[in-house]
């Protein structure tokens, strides 16, 4: 606290006290060793050690209840108070903004070889919620569906790009086993286009059952119809 008569330096923000997490916990009750959401028709529960941000993410994504636990200065508070009431209550992202972030999420998963179920990670959810409480993180099933949609959209374009290239193509095959021990075959193609731009493309990724002999490999390559 400042002594009476003491002035702050110009431009020094006056911060309000940090919101207490009790407004988040008010939406949950403890039964034995679990914390249960008490919102209507909800049976979701969390361990007592779950982070407050995890509980806030649940309230925001499932019940559209925004409990942001953050420090803001008086100027930001004033701006928020002057906002239309509809803007203050609408914490959910627009469909367009949601899809933009979904596309970036899919790019991150594909390019960095992340598992589909990374969206089930509590720490990952906490991280995204801290960045944007209004973003609703898709479940692994939705992530898989969106990646398949991207593949179906890009496949004809890739096939056209390969077929229109006049350069010689280098084809490479590689075997890979999933955690379920199912075997897969990956086929990649390397080539340059007319502008001498280099491409290295994953052309096919499909189930490749045993036996992995030269006969099955040859049949698989003809099945993929390499150009």
What do you see in this structure?
This protein has 227 residues and is of the alpha+beta class. It folds into three domains: 16-91, no CATH class; 92-164, no CATH class; 165-224, no CATH class. The chain has helices at residues 22-25, 52-63, 74-81, 85-89, 95-111, 122-131, 140-164, 214-224; strands at 28-31, 34-37, 45-47, 170-177, 183-192, 198-207. A three-stranded antiparallel sheet has the order 1-2-3, with no helix packed on it. Strands 4-5-6 form a three-stranded antiparallel sheet.
Brief digest:
The protein has 227 residues and is an alpha+beta fold.
Rounded Rg: 26 Å
Give the SSE order as H and E letters.
Answer: HEEEHHHHHHEEEH
- Biggest sheet, spatial arrangement of strands: 1-2-3
Structural class: alpha+beta
- Average pLDDT taken over every residue: 77
Helix content: 40-55%
How many distinct helices?
A: 8
The largest sheet is: 3 strands, antiparallel
Number of structurally distinct domains: 3
The end-to-end distance, rounded to whole angstroms, is: 76 Å
What's the total count of β strands? 6
> Which overall shape is indicated by the principal axes computed on the Cα atoms?
elongated
Beta strand %: 15-25%
pLDDT < 50 stretches: 1-20, 69-90
